[in-house]
């Protein structure tokens, strides 16, 4: 088995060498541009790692890993258009650098390209990969629509929010791992279990992201602390604060999440105080642990060596002990 950093080096070198130079240039240059922006590239790393977990040469999973990352970046181009975001990974977004129409079309092309990366696999493997990919891609779109819908709703429930982050974020983590298992041609049970491992870890990861957005270290988190509060996002913290908070705290919270003051510093601190005093912060940390534990429980059922179970356990532990 290789280390996570070794997989990251392989993925980085692979994408640095990946050339998408075709005509018309205004369709393919934006694709080359966003794929060159880097990022953590954790999803393709998970595909390679899962393949090796099930005794397959990780190089066989490179095409599937590429498909996962190309799809992920396609979704980012379209998300940035929907959010009118000026920056992605510290660089100008595709629709700002070119234009909205180019961003839409280049994103569409990336979705097709992602499918093409599966074509070199044997028919049975190709069919399994394509079937999983279609299901996952549709769920990601559904998750994004739920997220958009929630912006104008005041009655979002905890279960609805969990479903949204499962679809928008976690299913692609689970699928990335299951693709490695499919390429390795392991048992259906092993493939399903590693999907569940990735899915639960993905939910825990997103809940932790919500928590760090409010309570992370500004020097290590890499994003503006309180960004979700400024944008009035109804995160798990917010929903739990409404569930647990006293009447006056709920009213204050709902008011603060209906305004956009020029200076957000007081708003952020007041909201964080409500999150802490209502018990929402503690409930969020408990939920993170719960989903992480669910992921670890699947490891015991997998037909792999104890050494490989430990590798996945350590990976999950590191992911959940991050501060970035």
Beta strand %: under 5%
Low-pLDDT windows of residues: none
Structural class, from secondary structure content? mainly alpha
**What form results from the Cα inertia axes?**
globular
Give the termini separation.
26 Å
What does the main sheet amount to?
2 strands, antiparallel
Number of strands: 2
Write the layout of secondary structure elements.
Layout: H1 4-17, H2 25-35, H3 42-53, H4 62-83, E1 87-88, E2 91-92, H5 94-97, H6 100-116, H7 123-150, H8 158-184, H9 188-215, H10 218-221, H11 227-230, H12 236-244, H13 247-256, H14 265-278, H15 280-299, H16 306-320
Antiparallel strand pairs: 1-2
Helix pairs in contact: 1-3, 2-6, 3-4, 3-8, 4-6, 4-7, 4-8, 7-8, 8-9, 9-15, 12-13, 12-15, 15-16
Written description of the protein model:
- There is one protein chain.
- With 324 residues, the protein is mainly α.
- 74% of the residues lie in helices and 1% in strands.
- The protein has helices at residues 4-17, 25-35, 42-53, 62-83, 94-97, 100-116, 123-150, 158-184, 188-215, 218-221, 227-230, 236-244, 247-256, 265-278, 280-299, 306-320, and strands at residues 87-88, 91-92.
- A two-stranded antiparallel ribbon has the order 1-2.
- Strand 1 and strand 2 form a beta hairpin.
- Helix 3 packs antiparallel against helix 4 (62-83).
- The chain is globular and about 60 Å long.
- The relative contact order is 0.10.
- The model has no long low-confidence stretch (mean pLDDT 93).
Considering the chains and any ligands shown, give keywords for the structure.
single chain, 324 residues, mainly alpha, two-stranded antiparallel ribbon, 2 strands
């Amino acid at each position: 088995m290789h280390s996570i950093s070794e997989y990251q080096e392989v993925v980085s070198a692979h994408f640095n060498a990946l050339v998408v130079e075709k005509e018309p240039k205004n369709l393919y240059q934006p694709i080359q541009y966003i794929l060159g922006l880097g990022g953590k590239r954790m999803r393709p790393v998970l595909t390679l790692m899962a393949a090796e977990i099930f005794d397959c040469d990780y190089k066989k999973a490179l095409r599937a890993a590429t498909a996962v990352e190309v799809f992920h970046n396609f979704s980012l181009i379209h998300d940035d258009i929907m959010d009118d975001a000026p920056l992605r990974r510290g660089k100008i977004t595709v629709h700002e650098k070119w234009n909205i129409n180019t961003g839409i079309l280049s994103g569409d092309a990336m979705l097709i390209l992602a499918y093409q990366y599966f074509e070199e696999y044997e028919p049975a493997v190709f069919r399994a990969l394509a079937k999983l990919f279609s299901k996952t891609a549709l769920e990601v779109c559904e998750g994004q629509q739920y997220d958009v819908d929630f912006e104008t709703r005041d009655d979002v429930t905890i279960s609805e929010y969990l479903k949204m982050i499962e679809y928008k974020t976690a299913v692609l983590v689970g699928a990335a791992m299951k693709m490695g298992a499919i390429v390795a041609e392991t048992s259906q049970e092993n493939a399903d279990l590693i999907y569940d491992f990735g899915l639960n870890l993905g939910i825990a990861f997103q809940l932790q992201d919500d928590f760090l957005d409010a309570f992370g270290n500004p020097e290590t988190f890499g994003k503006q602390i309180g960004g979700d509060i400024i944008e009035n996002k109804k995160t798990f913290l917010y929903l739990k604060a409404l569930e647990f908070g006293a009447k006056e705290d709920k009213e204050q919270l709902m008011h603060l999440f209906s305004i956009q003051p020029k200076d957000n510093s007081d708003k952020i601190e007041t909201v964080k105080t409500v999150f802490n005093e209502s018990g929402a912060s503690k409930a969020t940390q408990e939920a993170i642990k719960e989903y992480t534990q669910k992921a670890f429980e699947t490891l015991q059922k997998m037909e792999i060596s104890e050494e490989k179970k430990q590798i996945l356990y350590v990976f999950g532990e590191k992911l959940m002990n991050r501060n970035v």
